[in-house]
Amino acid sequence: MSNTQRSxxxxxxxxxxxxxxxxxxxxxxxxxxxxxxLPAINxxxxxxxxxxxxxxxxxxxxxxxxxxLVFGAILFxxxxxxxxxxxxxxxxxxxxxxxxxxxxxxNLAGVPSVVYGLFxxxxxxxxxxFGASILSGSLTLGIMILPIIITTAREALExxxxxxREVSLSLGASKWxxxxxxxxxxxxxxxxxxxxxxxxxxxxxxxxxxxxxxxFYLPRLPKSIFDQVMALPYHLYVISTQVPNxxxxxxYGTALxxxxxxxxxxxxxxxxxYNFRKRKKW
Amino acid sequence: MRKLKEFIIDKLIFICGLASIFFVxxxxxxxxxxxxxxxxxxxxxxxxxxxxxxxxxxPAQLGILPLIFGSLMVTLGAAIISIPIxxxxxxxxxxxxxxxxxxxxxxxxxxxxxxxxxxxxFIGMVTLVPWVKRIFGLPTGLTALSGSIILAFMAMPTIVxxxxxxxxxxxxxxxxxxxxxxxxxxxxxxxxxxxAASSGIVAAVMLGIGRVIGETMAVMMxxxxxxxxxHSILVPVRTLTATIAAEMGEAVVGSEHxxxxxxxxxxxxxxxxIINVSADLFLHKRS
Lengths: 282, 287
Hints:
With 282 residues, chain A is an all-alpha fold. Chain A is 76% helix and 1% strand. In chain A, strand 1 and strand 2 (56-57) form a beta hairpin.
């Protein structure tokens, strides 16, 4: 074997090793959480309130809290994000304003999550006097996932062939009619993917809700959007660092519920995207 | 009537198009509104270069240098681990991996990106931290090293996916040209493809590091949170992000401690702004 071929073999082996170094721990993490968390999962764990200072009982209020927050975030972010994506893909030309908007989106995506928490605290909790509430938390999470939704929706809209628009316009449809009846329907799977990815991100984030909504311990369900709630990621943080002597099973069980929720959403998004690419007619 | 409706919709779309600019400015304004108040108590130089962070002592000492060092040390460690592994993995996925398992590997990377940071922090606490403690014979495993390892895993999905994109978008005829001249696949990768994709790879590394600096929960759970200037990677440290997350709950609204935490927030905001703008410049240099 020549020298160059040997060095190629060695190099490829190390590249392979690096890939394993990333993927094996990921697999192990998931396996360990499933294995140690599964024994904790039963109907009572999912439907009961936490008891005995969170050392027993269930995590129902945290699950419900997370659902409220995620729903609120998407209610805020989807309309704005979708319209922003329509602007970028259908209206904006190649001008400085467009460039600044794109930079702003990149920046919004890069702002650390704890900084979103600070911002939510200053604007929604203190300045607008919403207090620590579902409303403040949802709005904060909503702004955080805005860049995800804009970027994926824009890609989906831009992948609709230009000829579709031209045909519609040539038949006398207005610009908005074309968008509404031709472009949007063809972009729905992509928009859905972005929305679900945004949901998954919002469900898993802790730092933005720390000071805007999350309750340490609140064993009842919220009555209005001005109530605090417990949330799954914060609850996991609390029982793993703030409360001593919580059974390992309960910690793993909570981690498993959170992980399953987030991974399930990502899986759905991946499947939609995959099917869409396969079926794509153009 | 229809004209009016279309006019309103057009305007609405335009306004939403500007939403991201609006929110970036809003974040900056509200952070600085609270942050600037801290400079009534401490000068900017003492704030950035002060060696003591005792926010609730009397009088409060608000020097964030130990926190900056904490963030730097954890970030540097994570960068040393994640950059070579991440780039190597990107090269493997885009060039070497058989096409059958390519999608599978990519899904694995996406899976890692999707794991919430609090779950990674939890796993780090129950597995990695005891290991670090045992292997190095330390009094505690809650160290900068543990933080670096977990953070490396949070940076790698970003590095891999952006670097892979960069490699993928190198024109195919570069590769064919190198092959035609008799270069082996590996020679082509490191003499032709990597240099051609270099600006995208630099952007990938920058964005990965940006993710690490801003990461909060996992870091707070496993670095031990000691606000002193670290002298080694095997001692507890406290980062900028963890300080905000850990202390804001106790800070009284309108106190100097509260303002100081916002000032840390603006420091983080500015760092992420610089990283993202320059990464974006690198990404656009390519095209």
